[in-house]
UniProtKB/TrEMBL annotation:
Entry's Gene Ontology BP terms: defense response to Gram-positive bacterium
UniProt KW keywords: Disulfide bond, Secreted, Signal
Origin: domain of life: Eukaryota
Designated gene of the protein: LOC106545896
SMART domains, per database record: RNAse_Pc (SM00092)
Taxonomic lineage: Eukaryota, Metazoa, Chordata, Craniata, Vertebrata
Domain Ribonuclease A-domain: 23-124
Signal peptide: 1-24
Protein name: Angiogenin-like
Gene Ontology, cellular component aspect: extracellular region
UniProt-listed SUPFAM superfamilies: RNase A-like
């Protein structure tokens, strides 16, 4: 009977570990895909960063330190969250087989998973979302 309890406890611990790792992986994946801080200095910024990170068409790179990123989503919140303050970002896209980019500052709609941003949903303006 005691062995059965230990097995159940081990199973519960394993499941909790997997859940916690998945949450952390979502944030780490988000940082790999979308965060460039401090901003990489490059003559051909979009070409270099898009190729180095494996993006082929378009992507948004935000220029915030990790500590600021972790404060975007409320504690343990899951769902959409508009950044309270404008965020510096670079939008890179491929046009006619050549990368180009636009740097700007705007509020961003993030998707949060248990208090951490895991996706950029859209760029936000007070009139509409892009």
């Amino acid at each position: 009977m005691a062995a059965k309890g230990i097995h159940l406890l081990w199973l519960l611990f394993s499941v909790l570990w997997i859940i916690l790792e998945t949450e952390a992986d979502g944030f780490e994946d988000f940082k790999r895909k979308h965060v460039d801080f401090p901003v990489t200095v490059s003559a051909d910024y979009c070409k270099n960063i898009m190729e180095s990170r494996g993006h082929y068409e378009a992507n948004v790179f935000i220029h915030l330190p990790e500590a600021d990123l972790k404060h975007i989503c409320p504690n343990r919140y899951t769902g959409k969250k508009i950044s309270e303050n404008p965020v510096q970002y670079t939008y890179c896209s491929k046009i006619f087989n050549r990368f180009s980019g636009v740097r700007s500052t705007r509020r961003i709609v993030f998707h949060c998973l248990k208090g951490l941003p895991v996706k950029i949903d859209s760029l936000y303006s007070d009139q509409n979302q892009i």
